[in-house]
Design goal:
This is Hydroperoxide isomerase ALOXE3-like. Keywords: Calcium, Cytoplasm, Dioxygenase, Iron, Lipid metabolism, Metal-binding, Oxidoreductase. The record marks 104 as: Essential for stabilizing binding to COTL1. This protein is of the alpha+beta class. It has a domain at 2-116: Lipoxygenase-1. Helices cover 40% and strands 14% of the residues. It has helices spanning 127-143, 173-192, 205-208, 218-226, 230-239, 260-263, 273-278, 344-385, 391-396, 403-413, 427-441, 449-455, 465-488, 492-496, 499-511, 528-550, 553-557, 580-586, 590-604, 624-648, and strands spanning 2-10, 21-28, 31-32, 36-37, 50-57, 64-72, 82-90, 96-105, 110-114, 146-147, 156-157, 247-248, 282-286, 297-298, 301-302, 309-314, 320-326, 337-338. The strands form five sheets. Strands 2, 3, 4, 6 and 9 form a five-stranded antiparallel sheet that branches. It has a five-stranded antiparallel sheet with strand order 12-13-16-17-18. Helix 13 packs antiparallel against helix 16 (528-550).
């Protein structure tokens, strides 16, 4: 008689347990066990428990191949899904085999689990497993389908309602409840203060500071005090939520006729614009990608919107200072170049309009398109193309937790009829057009941080903490991926003959960048080096890059004067005509300001079921080598976190968004 010891682990999330009957059948190379109900004294499958069972067989089953789980009704109890985390089997020969599950199992459902090391398609030996693999992928392709909502944007999952999303990739119940609670707290505070729906205009900046008394951060308070300062304005283009747009300027665009006389007073004494360009101290922010996009119609009129240019100077104190702003692309008498020497309110208005446009592009392109929407493409392709036993599925799936769910919320709460982005100056239609333009110009290299930084000429810019921390994270993730890939793909030929991998990259090319060969995105992968770089980009995008652009939203954007999605008054066309009253007339009204601040709060929140970069609560890898690679990854992340914490302790404005202890493993908010 052969005895198999089973450790059955039930998940720890709310309502993971079940009262139903659970039965197991083992399949091996030498036969199968009988169907055995798991039944100990007491309640067997309580939330967060591990229970031990024994399955007996007349003889050894040989090498274990599959484990079949079945769930049947207990008495007249209503349906209660069971979340099975994993089952660990100890064979009569002493082998210990991990069977990862991490899925909800419904009544009457049959779940077949594979255990052991990650296996690629060309490594399959047994007809039973080949058949199982093919059927699993057929099921996954029917469950996860592509939806083309807009022919010029990345394709998405086909689920129309959140309730249609499989439970494994939906928010946990605790996260859902916490988000509902946060919304209520925000709504109650705004309603109590009479801010919701108010059409009154602001008259005092001090009143704006009272929008939220229950939610403040050290950084949000700093922003409210320093938003007018030029050095802080420049600092934000390096270390705020949108560090992706500024680049070194060696020659002025012909449509930005800044003269030496205009900017000489703001340069080092005795220097010139030409000299500073040659020294690499001049930088530019050009919003030309947004030029010509129609703005939203409000009360029968187009809302004001600009697509401007800003010139920056890195001064001898290593502060990035704005020295010239032109609010429209084409120079004219009605489109003056604003300077720091202009009146305080003229210069403030110029910065306000530039930041408003920057904020819209940041949210639509660098946040939603480049992380959320591409992240969904990576997620759907992975769910469709890799079986659970594939090593790349095991590697990638922790980084796609909640992506599909959170994107459905983004379409509803940000781009829906009452969404924050729909209320912006460009409105939904304008932002969709902006995303279309940006996707058509997107390149693979722009998503690879080392190449991105080099292309923008920012390798040696001082006090650029996003770059410093980001490049270190890129190297750590790259080293982690390299170790994993070289373990599972010893040669380039292994990459080439993995047909599931080739289908995966093909789907990303087709559904992500829409088959645009000019993007430089690979259509196939032929070497381990190509695979390592692409996987590094994917993991970096959905973890570190998303954290960099997402986590500072409340810090920097809850204070509306520092950048508003919506402006009401037309931009200045002549100098010397503005006043503080003009600023308040330009800013959104009380109700819209409060609404935007509330969204910034929600988008920057952290919830109790958060999983940070490098944490793997779901044990999917069974091999000691893979576990050691993960431990090395975690140690390097911990070391970087200590380094960042030490540096930040010396800074007036700490940069925390790429501290590994602040980076979620996936796009989950």
């Amino acid at each position: 008689m052969a005895k198999y010891k089973l450790e059955v682990i039930t998940g720890s999330m709310k309502h993971a347990g079940t009262m139903d009957h659970i039965s197991i059948t083992l399949y091996g190379t030498e036969g199968q066990s009988g169907r055995t109900e798991l039944n100990n004294f007491g309640i067997d499958f309580k939330t967060g428990t591990t229970r031990i069972y024994t399955i007996k067989s007349k003889q050894s089953l040989g090498k274990l191949l599959l484990l079949k789980v079945e769930k049947d009704r207990f008495l007249f109890f209503p349906e209660d899904e069971w979340y099975c985390s994993k089952i660990v089997v100890t064979t009569p020969e002493g082998d210990v085999i991990l069977f990862p599950c991490y899925q909800w199992i419904s009544r009457g459902e049959l779940m077949e689990l594979r255990g052991g090391r990650g296996v690629k398609v060309f490594e399959e030996e047994y007809p039973l497993l080949i058949d199982h693999r093919e059927k699993e992928l057929q099921l996954k392709k029917s469950l996860y389908q592509w939806e083309i909502v807009d022919k010029k944007l990345p394709h998405s999952s086909h689920f129309e309602q959140i309730s249609e999303i499989p439970a494994e990739i939906r928010f946990s119940m605790s996260k859902t409840e916490e988000m509902i609670y946060s919304r209520r707290i925000i709504g109650i505070e705004l309603m109590f203060k009479g801010l919701i729906g108010s059409t009154e205009k602001w008259e005092d900046f001090e009143d704006m500071k009272k929008i939220f008394l229950s939610k403040k951060t050290a950084m949000s308070e700093y922003v409210a005090e320093h938003w007018k300062e030029d050095d802080f304005f420049g600092f934000q283009f390096l270390n705020s939520t949108n560090p992706n747009v500024i680049k070194r300027c060696s020659e002025l665009p012909p449509n930005f006729p800044v003269t030496e006389e205009m900017v000489q007073p703001f340069l080092e004494e005795g220097s010139s614009l030409k000299n500073e360009m040659e020294k690499g101290n001049i930088f530019i922010r050009d919003q030309k990608v947004m030029d010509g996009i129609p703005s939203r119609i409000c009360n029968g009129e187009s809302l004001p919107f600009t697509a401007g240019l800003c010139l920056f100077y890195m001064n001898p104190e290593n502060k990035l200072m704005p020295i010239a702003i032109q609010l429209q692309q084409q120079p004219s008498e009605q489109n003056p170049i604003f300077l720091p020497s202009d009146s305080e309110t003229d210069w403030l208005l110029a910065k306000l309009f530039l930041k408003s446009t920057d904020l819209m592009e940041y949210e639509a392109v660098h946040h939603l398109l480049n992380t959320h929407f591409l992240g969904e493409v990576f997620t759907v392709a992975t769910l469709r193309c890799f079986p659970l036993i594939h090593p790349l599925y095991k590697l990638l799936i922790p980084h796609f937790r909640y992506v599909i769910h959170v994107n459905k919320l983004a379409h509803r709460d940000l781009l829906g009829p009452k969404g924050a982005l729909t209320k912006s100056s460009l409105g939904r239609d304008g932002l969709i057009e902006l995303m279309r333009r940006s996707l058509s110009e997107m390149t693979y290299s722009s998503l690879c941080l080392p190449e991105n930084i080099t292309a923008r000429g920012l390798e040696s810019v001082p006090n650029f903490y996003y770059r410093d921390d980001g490049l270190k994270l890129w190297r750590i993730i790259n080293s982690f991926v390299k170790d994993m890939v070289e373990h599972y793909y010893p040669s380039d030929s292994d990459v080439c003959k993995d047909t599931e991998l080739q289908e995966w990259i093909s789907e990303i090319f087709t559904h992500g960048v829409l088959g645009n060969k000019l993007s430089g995105f690979p259509e196939s992968l032929n070497t381990t080096e190509e695979l390592i770089n692409f996987l590094t980009m994917v993991i970096f995008t959905v973890s570190a890059q998303h954290a960099a652009v997402n986590n500072g939203q409340f810090d920097y954007h809850s204070w509306t004067p520092n950048g508003s999605l919506l402006l009401h008054k037309a931009p200045p066309t002549t100098k010397g005509q503005s006043s503080l009253k003009t600023i308040f007339e330009t800013l959104p009204n009380v109700g819209d300001t409060a609404s935007f601040a509330g969204v910034a709060w929600l988008l920057s929140d952290t919830y109790s079921d958060v999983v940070f970069l490098g944490e793997y609560p779901e044990e999917r890898f069974d091999e000691p080598a893979s576990k050691q690679i993960i431990q090395k990854f975690q140690a390097e992340l911990s070391s970087l976190s200590e380094e960042i914490t030490k540096r930040n302790s010396l800074l007036e404005i700490p940069y925390t968004y790429l501290d590994p202890t602040q980076i979620e493993n996936s796009i989950s908010i």
